[in-house]
């Protein structure tokens, strides 16, 4: 998932799948992972609406520190909470149904 920070951000705006393990360059600043199936969501998720429900955010007062540093591992439960808030049906992170929208009416 991709987090957009800043004054006009503070939202999770999309998702992708990992296509590689960590690629180390010898200088940790330039280490990276490859991604595939990148998708910008129609409905970005305001992160503040979920902070109290996300287990990877241990200190709710300073929630922003958990989204810094590039890649953050989150649990399947947190992943599903975010996807549901964005309006996506989802069975498993191994089999995402990101193109199947649920009826939000």
Would you mind describing this structure in some detail?
The chain has 105 residues and is of the alpha+beta class. The chain has a single domain, classed as Roll (ph1033 like fold), CATH 3.10.590. 10% of the residues lie in helices and 22% in strands. It contains one helix and three strands, in the order βββα.
Level-2 CATH architecture: Roll
Number of domains: 1
> What structural category characterises the helix and strand content?
alpha+beta
Main beta sheet: strand number and arrangement? 3 strands, antiparallel
Helix content: 10-25%
What is the CA–CA distance across the termini? 25 Å
CATH class division? Alpha Beta
Structure at a glance:
The chain is α+β, with helices and mostly antiparallel strands and 105 residues long. The chain has one helix at residues 76-86, and strands at residues 2-4, 11-18, 35-46. The protein has a 3-stranded antiparallel β-sheet with strand order 1-2-3, with helices on one face.
